[in-house]
Amino acid sequence: MTRLSVNINKIATLRNSRGGNNPNVVKTALDCESFGAQGITVHPRPDERHIRYQDVLDLKEVVGTEFNIEGNPTEKKFIELVLLAKPAQVTLVPDALGAITSNAGWDTITHRERLTDLVGIFKEAGIRVSVFVDPDEKMVEGAKICGADRVELYTEPYAADYPENPAKAVEAYVKAAKVAHEIGLGLNAGHDLSLENLRYLKEQIPYLDEVSIGHALICDALYYGLENTIQMYLRELQ
Question: Whole-structure pTM over 0.90, yes or no?
Answer without folding.
Answer: yes
